[in-house]
Amino acid sequence: MTDNLDRWGPTRRPKGKARSLTSEQLQLADELQLRALALRTASDGELSITEAVHLAAVQLGLEAPQTGAEEAPD
User: CA nearest 55: which of 30, 24, 23, 32?
Assistant: First the structure.
């Protein structure tokens, strides 16, 4: 299964092929891809790629957003 890990690593489209994403959007896309890969690997292939991505998206949606800055007390 290790061969699949290399094949499904994070990728980027060449410039001009798609609209530019912000750094936050790229970070989110990478996080989604890594989670989906981990879920699919842990399922020993029982999850399809589509199912793994859907499940990873649900997990990300359930987490509290991380702003990178701590809130100041009132």
Answer: 32
